[in-house]
Structures are given as C-alpha cells and as structure tokens.
Design a protein that fits this description.
With 220 residues, this protein is α+β, with helices and mostly antiparallel strands. The protein contains 8 helices and 9 strands.
Length: 220
C-alpha cells in the first residue's frame, strides 16, 4: 500500500527558535498531543503538550529544551500495524515522517490510520474468528497458515492476542470458510486448543463498532 498520500502537511513543524509561549499557543489551536520540532527542516524530536503546559518561562526557545523532546518517527517504508503500534507505544495522535537524511517530510494522524485499518479485509470481510492457544515455543505462524490453507480456506488475518496466559500463546484467526468444524478438527490434531469461536466473533464486532463510533465522531 502506498502511504505517501496519507502523509499530512496541514501545519508547519515548529522551529527550534520558537518560544515556549508560541508552542503553548499552537497547542491551544490545534488538538494534537505532540508537535514536531525542526532545525533547518532537520527533525529534532517531538514535544508533548503535557511536558510543556506547566513551564513558567514562556520566553525560552524550544530548542533549549532538548531533554523534553521525544525521538520517535517513521519513514516511507511502513505499514498500518507498525503505525498503530507506534501510536500506542508513544501515546500520541501524530507520528512524524522523515527521510534518510533525517529531514522532516510530514506526519501521519491517528484517526486516518484507524480509518485505513477499518477498510482492511480483516475487519470488513465476512468471515469467522477463532481464538486458539498452544504452549509458547511450540507453535509457529507458518504452521497455523499451513493447517488452514491445507483445508483450502482463505486466511484474512492472524495475530498474537496474548502471550502470557499460563505459559500459552493465544492466536486470533480471521478466516473465510463455511466449514468451520473441519478447520477446528485440523487445528486440534496439531494440539491447538480452541479457546472460543463466539468470543473471537465478538472481538471483531467490538472492533467494528469502535471503528464505526470513531468514524461518526470524526465526522461531527
């Protein structure tokens, strides 16, 4: 997928010469958790609203507060899951994009990436969701894929949903099939435990509902 079209430039990055007051004022106008800081368009880091809001010296140049800058970013070679992971890890709603020369290019917004994720077949296709488990270290994604595909079934997506349950790893599968019992029996022959079918379907429905809610909220 080409992510270049999703890179935003609705506002300019903040120069290191900008004062603390100028940055505070920008946070009042634009509803983001962080803003990118640059020096001659070279990316220096991200400043968080929570880190600057209570500073008393409003005239200090933001470039002198390098200890407050967070150094997270991405590049052109990224994907939806990596971006969502970075959004969650940094507790942010904006991720800067830089090139190989560390120059600032633009930014990704959380709401747009969530919309993009909602359009993936994992959520939009009619399918069945299974949650299975096996002892950690004794399973592999390739083995699971081989078991599923040997039954001539299409895999819409799979991911590790829990890796700390009594020494077992939980895997959530999203598959397209009308013969779910055959798949379940095949997985059990390879010692995969079926934790829940209904819970898996409920998880997908909750993801859809939350995505729908966010979509409606963003359109207000």
């Amino acid at each position: 997928m080409d992510f270049i079209s999703y890179i935003n430039n609705d506002f300019s990055p903040i120069a290191v010469e900008a004062s603390v007051k100028q940055v505070k004022d920008l946070f009042k106008v634009l509803p983001f958790t962080h803003f990118p800081i640059v020096e001659d368009n070279t990316f220096k880091g991200m400043i968080g609203q929570a880190d600057i809001i209570n500073l008393l010296d409003n005239e200090t140049p933001i470039g002198e507060l390098s200890h407050l800058l967070q150094n997270y970013h991405t590049d052109f070679d990224t994907n939806v899951l990596d971006l969502l992971s970075l959004f969650a890890q940094e507790d942010t709603d904006i991720i800067p994009v830089i090139n190989d020369s560390h120059e600032y290019i633009g930014y990704f917004e959380l709401d747009e990436i969530i919309r993009l994720f909602y359009k993936t077949p994992f959520l939009t296709s009619n399918g069945t969701t299974l949650i299975i488990a096996k002892q950690t270290g004794s399973f592999s994604m390739s083995e699971i894929a081989q078991i599923i595909e040997s039954n001539n079934i299409k895999i819409l997506g799979l991911y590790i949903s829990d890796a700390e349950s009594d020494g077992k790893t939980e895997i959530t599968l999203r598959i397209e099939t009308e013969n779910i019992n055959e798949v379940i029996q095949s997985l059990r022959r390879y010692e995969y435990e079926l934790l829940s079918k209904k819970a898996g379907d409920l998880l997908i429905e909750q993801l859809k509902e939350r995505s729908d809610y966010l979509q409606k909220y963003l359109e207000i």
